[in-house]
What does this fold into?
Amino acid sequence: MIWLTDKDRQLLAEIEGEISREIMLENWKAFMKYTPLPSGSVQEKKAVQFLKSKLKEYGLTPDVLHFEAYISNPKYAKLVILRPYEQEVQCTPYRQVGTTGTEGVEGDVIYIPPEEVGTAECRDKIILVDQQTSGDWMGLRKDLLLKLQEMDVKALIVIEQDSFKPTVVHQRADFSVSGNPTSDNVHLIQRIPAIIHVSNKEGALLRKLAKQGGMRAQITSIVETGWKTLPLLVAEIKGAKDPDRFLLVNGHIDTPPFSPGVTDNASGDVAVLELARILNKHREKLGRSIRFAFWTGHEIGRYAGSTWYNDAFWHELRYRCVGFYNIDSPGAEGATTFRAAPIGEVQEAAVDSIKAATGIEVNSFRWPTRAGDSSFWGTGLPHASVTSSRPKELYDPFVNYSGGGWWWHTPYATMNHGDIDILATDVRVELNYIFRMTNCPVLPMNFVAYADHMVKVLEDLQAKADKVKAFFNLYPVIQRAKEFRDMAEKLEKAVRQSIEKGVSDEVLEELNSCLMWVSRHINPVSHSNAGVTEQMTMDTFGTEPFPRIQEILKLAEMTLHSSPEFEFLRTKLLRQRNVVEDGFYQANEVIRVTLAKV
It folds into this structure.
């Protein structure tokens, strides 16, 4: 339930009126002078100092932390067709570990269609492939790339799938491990010497050429990989009533390689500055604290900054943080609507904030993704981001995100693709959400719709794996999830009754503690496939609910239930099912105990 006092609603209206287009535009233009700013660069350090000076000007006490990050910085790529004729083709290097060195690699080029990638013979060849592999719009990633590496492929030429804007190339990454690799997962980072990207238009010509046979090319791809010390800027506004609990509000500083990043994420950093400026003026009237963080290592460090922060401050995040709010890509030209709101316990708060600030009613919902430094699922934090979006006719369906602007991750992401009026609207929405999270006496978390969606997801997953239900099924998890849905309804009812009765601070504290711990139990099993202190893998990009048990579909695809491979996977799934079931069990117990008290 979302409940603000009349006094707080009047305060929120006053705060909204303090949003300054003039100040934001000045900061936006000033920040753009430092871009592009890849992590580890002098430009990035200057940008951090600029943001720090602004926070100090606005009355905060910012601090610059430093951490070690394993980053891969693409510097240069060149593609020359040698046969049947000589021609250079424009390209960009992937954000990946492999590098050819200045000497490059030379070889015969063959085209492999999406359904044959990873099975067609390609040893010692340069292969031309489509970014969109069979059944996966995000394209070539961990498993396929590792398989191609094992097959001794020389290099990859990847054809950009963007037919919406066929003459651009969006800078892409290989999506392997999340954050800094460890001794347990560093082997999951593929090291193919060169992966380069060509536009959809030029890729079509190369595809035709390769299919004719006899094609040969030389590729140079320079990527610098290693450990670097990066800065990370933080600042906090202490709440007046419950200062120990805080909302984490953040955005990334670094821009994609070769891109000025006007809305990815210069605009987001400007928005965070404006939020800090306004909210700090009213700090004595804020209930809970707000902690601002500006991540580095986002683009070329696989979310190195946010994952390191989760590692370094795990305990206080786990026990004191009420939620994670990411600001990435606001203020995009033409972004006059809002895309689907995130499914979760803060779904109602996000939808209510959008409507209060803009009058727009969001009626579509999406499972949150791994993008945008969502590095806190294992820790159990509620995640939210409510950035504006371009309407369908202007939305490039092949980008992720810049409001759906075609300029995402390209050199064309310049100031003319930012809109100060839209940025002001985004900040108004963000203020509404943040204020609800800090000043609602009972945290605005409602698990009912979240639980209902999870039951449907689990039932659908089970239906798709009906073939193997006699050998392995999700029935125990589904039963716990249905119980959770019932318990969530009872908890929401108790919250409403408590608010209507005007209960004591002690009861409010019981309810808030309950809501936080339900999140801690539910979010890690519904979104992560790692332990509570670990990072989930990036290969699903966070789009798969319950990643621990998704392989039930793989089990159902196996021909023989008596094979060793079937038994190995079934054993793994049984253990993972236990983890998921226990998450629901623990959440149900927390609610049960709380209801008995209040």
Summary: The chain has a mean pLDDT of 95. Residues 6-70+228-439 form a domain with the Aminopeptidase fold (CATH 3.40.630.10).
